[in-house]
C-alpha cells in the first residue's frame, strides 16, 4: 500500500509518500519560520494562508520524488489534530479532495500518534511495548506505548511544554525566532555554575512536569545583572541543563515504575543534543535501549503521518466523506483500529 501523507498542523507544510513494502519513498517539507520570525511567533491566519499556497506544489513534488503517478497512490493520510484549526482544515480539505478525485481511502491521523510512531520508520524500530518521552513546543508527556492506539499517559506538563519554555526564555535573552534551537546553540558556549535555576517538581513524587516557572526563575536570577554575550550564554547553559535534568529524572522514575527497557524520545526537543547525550548515558548505565527518530523526523513532518496512516489503514480503518479537524484532541482518547477512537474529533 502506497500512502500519501499530509501535515499542516502548525507552521510546517509537508507531504510524503510511504510504501508498505519499500518504506519511505519521499519526504518534502516547507518551513514558515522565516515568515513568522517578524512577529516572534506563529500567526495562525498567516500560517493557514501559506499552507494553501504551498501544499499542492509539495504534494506534486512528493509524488515526483517517489516516481509515482496519482493513480498509483492507494490512500491518503492527513493530520486531523491537534493543532491550529485553520491550518488543520487546509490539510484536511486537500486530503479529502485528493482522495475523492483519486477514488481511494483517506484517514485522519492524530499528530502525537505520528510522533510516537516516527521511530518505527527506521530499520531498528522498537517492538511494542515501549516507554515514550514526547517533548516538543506544544507537548511534554511520558506514555506507555503498548500498541497502535494503545497509549497510557503516565506523566504530562501541567502548564508550559518544555519547548515552549525554551522559546519564551530565548525571547527573554533577545534571541531570534525560532528561539528553542537558538538557545540550544548559545548554551554550547555557556559556563556552568554562574547561575542556578530550579529543577521543577523533582521535590515531589510522580511523573508530571511544570516548566512555566523556569522563565520567571530566569528573570529573578538575572535581575540587576548586566548580561553581556557570555552572560547570556551562561544563562542559556543553565536553563537548558535545568530542563534536561528534569526530563532525565522523570524518565528514570518512569523506567522504574513501568519496568520497560526501551525508551523512545520523540518531538522537536528530542533533537536537542544535550538531552540526547544525557538520555543515551542513562540508557548505557541502566541497560535501557534509548531510541530517537532521525532529526528530520523529530520536528513536524509528513513522513510520520503517512506511516501512522498506513498502520491504521492496513487494519481496515478509514474515514467517510466528512472533513475532520480538531484543534484539541487528547491522545488518551485514541483506541486501536476497529474500536471507538474518534469520539473527541
UniProtKB/TrEMBL annotation:
First-listed, main subcellular location of the protein, grouped into a coarse class: cytoplasm
Enzyme class: transferase
Catalytic activity: L-threonylcarbamoyladenylate + adenosine(37) in tRNA = N(6)-L-threonylcarbamoyladenosine(37) in tRNA + AMP + H(+)
Co-factor note (free text): Binds 1 Fe(2+) ion per subunit.
GO biological process: tRNA threonylcarbamoyladenosine modification
GO molecular function: iron ion binding; tRNA N(6)-L-threonylcarbamoyladenine synthase activity
Cited InterPro entries: ATPase_NBD, Gcp-like_dom, KAE1/TsaD, Peptidase_M22_CS, TsaD
GO annotation, cellular component aspect: cytoplasm
Domain Gcp-like as annotated: residue spans: 24-307
Residues annotated for substrate binding in this entry: 134-138, 167, 180, 272
Cofactor(s) the record lists: Fe(2+)
Residues where Fe cation binds: 111, 115, 300
EC number: 2.3.1.234
UniProtKB keywords: Acyltransferase, Cytoplasm, Iron, Metal-binding, Transferase, tRNA processing
Compartments, record wording: Cytoplasm
Chain's role: Required for the formation of a threonylcarbamoyl group on adenosine at position 37 (t(6)A37) in tRNAs that read codons beginning with adenine. Is involved in the transfer of the threonylcarbamoyl moiety of threonylcarbamoyl-AMP (TC-AMP) to the N6 group of A37, together with TsaE and TsaB. TsaD likely plays a direct catalytic role in this reaction.
NCBIfam families to which the protein is assigned, alphabetical: gcp_kae1 (TIGR00329), T6A_TsaD_YgjD (TIGR03723)
The name this protein goes by in its record: tRNA N6-adenosine threonylcarbamoyltransferase
Lineage: Bacteria, Pseudomonadati, Pseudomonadota, Gammaproteobacteria, Steroidobacterales
Protein encoded by which gene: tsaD
Amino acid at each position: 500500500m502506497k500512502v500519501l501523507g499530509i501535515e499542516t498542523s502548525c507552521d510546517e507544510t509537508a507531504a510524503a509518500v510511504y510504501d508498505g513494502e519499500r518504506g519511505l519513498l519521499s519526504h518534502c517539507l516547507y518551513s514558515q519560520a522565516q515568515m513568522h520570525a517578524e512577529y516572534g511567533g506563529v500567526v495562525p491566519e498567516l500560517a493557514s494562508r501559506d499552507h494553501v499556497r504551498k501544499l499542492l506544489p509539495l504534494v506534486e513534488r512528493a509524488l515526483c520524488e517517489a516516481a509515482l503517478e496519482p493513480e498509483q497512490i492507494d490512500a491518503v493520510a492527513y493530520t486531523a489534530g491537534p493543532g491550529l484549526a485553520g491550518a488543520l482544515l487546509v490539510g484536511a480539505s486537500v486530503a479529502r479532495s485528493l482522495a475523492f478525485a483519486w477514488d481511494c481511502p483517506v484517514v485522519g491521523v492524530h499528530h502525537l500518534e505520528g510522533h510516537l510512531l516516527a521511530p518505527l520508520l527506521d530499520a531498528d524500530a522498537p517492538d511494542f511495548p515501549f516507554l515514550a518521552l514526547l517533548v516538543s513546543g506544544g507537548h511534554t508527556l511520558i506514555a506507555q506505548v503498548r500498541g497502535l492506539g494503545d497509549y497510557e499517559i503516565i506523566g504530562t506538563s501541567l502548564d508550559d511544554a518544555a519547548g515552549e519554555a525554551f522559546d519564551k526564555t530565548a525571547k527573554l535573552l533577545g534571541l531570534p525566532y525560532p528561539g528553542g534551537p537558538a538557545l540550544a546553540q548559545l548554551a554550547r558556549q555557556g559556563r556552568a555554575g554562574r547561575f542556578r535555576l530550579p529543577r521543577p517538581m523533582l521535590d515531589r513524587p510522580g511523573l508530571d512536569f511544570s516548566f512555566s516557572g523556569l522563565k520567571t526563575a530566569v528573570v529573578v536570577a538575572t535581575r540587576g545583572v548586566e548580561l553581556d554575550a557570555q552572560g547570556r550564554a551562561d544563562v542559556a547553559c543553565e536553563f537548558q541543563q535545568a530542563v534536561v535534568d528534569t526530563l532525565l529524572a522523570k524518565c528514570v522514575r518512569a523506567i522504574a515504575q513501568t519496568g520497560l527497557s526501551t525508551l523512545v524520545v520523540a518531538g522537536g526537543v528530542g533533537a536537542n543534543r544535550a538531552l540526547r547525550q544525557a538520555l543515551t548515558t542513562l540508557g548505557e548505565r541502566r541497560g535501557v535501549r534509548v531510541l530517537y527518530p532521525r532529526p528530520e523526523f523529530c520536528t513536524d513532518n509528513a513522513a510520520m503521518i503517512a506511516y501512522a496512516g498506513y498502520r491504521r489503514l492496513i487494519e481496515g480503518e478509514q474515514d467517510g466523506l466528512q472533513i475532520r479537524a480538531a484543534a484539541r484532541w487528547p491522545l488518551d482518547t485514541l483506541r486501536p483500529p476497529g474500536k471507538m477512537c474518534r469520539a473527541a474529533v
